[in-house]
């Protein structure tokens, strides 16, 4: 049984702001909205669910380890090749399968047991990490080895990510879904804070091979956690029956809802231009600040520190609005542009913290909006399309930003990384404002809300 709902007053009403651009039949189902500010003790209320608590522990261990592997892998490729472009190619190979096969992974997630899919995927990831560890520790590793392993790991991700997204609902049910998504993001960013710092230390102390070995052990622990879950306490949904046109059905469904389509579009701009930030940070650490592997790990940890704050803030978000998702994407782009102008590493690091905050506010908001806007029977396919854009976009952005950083300048690469998403967010905001007859009102006398978005009166 799930724990009782929070004591704060809740009402069920449609609150997703579509700016008046969709007909009623395209509106999402009603959502549970907290009308009072949650007590701090309810910030992570989804952890009261025993199965989700077990899953979160395993997820945290795995995230720390995967960040260790990601940082160690990127730095090892940079050392072996001397090329930032090669680092971008590694990122592209790892994310390219999601771009090409993402919808197929979502269809599999809708048709088969999510828990079994995750156990299979984590077992494969453990084998790949162990192979990479053996190559690195023996001194036989070459760049092409990393390319091949990154590509195969990307194929595993095609199945793992949509199943993982939908499995959260089976762990907590609809009552705590939004909170569980935010808790997952918090866990991911806490791991992202610890993982890069550990990787930076391990790269200088014992070498990259031990970081890969640690990830292999962590994947095995995730499998153990999945096996410990109580099946009788899962909110298992009926598998979708096999039928022709399942992928087209998911695409039509996504394009028919503004609360899925617009976050999907913004996720595309963020993914291509701003989600391959570690590639640009490698160039800054190596060529601009001369900070080495430890500095690279530190910069990634600072981004994760801000993201952790953003993830915690997202758990206390009372309303889920399309306009706020677009705003957060724009702020992330602005922060990256400001970082490109930073005169020193301390200032650069401080802006990276703010960048991480706004990035996570966007990611959690868009993820929640897409998930709660889709019915369970089709959610795997909808989420796979979202993940295809979010992860697959990095397959394009990684090599592109790496090439710009290497052949033009790291500062130019970071300006492109932030400037394009910021411009896209501004364009989408104008379109939504016109469709919804919205305008910006500034009232400096109102101390609580000096800037508000209001609906214009009809002529």
From TrEMBL:
Q: Where in the cell is it found?
A: Cell membrane
**What transmembrane ranges does the database entry give?**
54-72, 84-105, 117-137, 143-159, 180-203, 209-229, 261-285, 291-312, 324-341, 347-364, 385-405, 411-433
Name of a matching Pfam family: MFS_3
- Please list the coiled coil stretches: none
Which key words are in the record?
Answer: Cell membrane, Membrane, Transmembrane, Transmembrane helix, Transport
Bilayer disposition of the protein: Multi-pass membrane protein
The UniProt annotation puts the region (Disordered) at 1-27
Which residue range or ranges hold the Major facilitator superfamily (MFS) profile domain?
51-436
Enumerate the PROSITE patterns for this protein: MFS (PS50850)
- PANTHER family of this UniProt entry? INTEGRAL MEMBRANE EFFLUX PROTEIN-RELATED (PTHR23513), STAPHYLOFERRIN A TRANSPORTER (PTHR23513:SF11)
UniProt name for this protein: MFS transporter
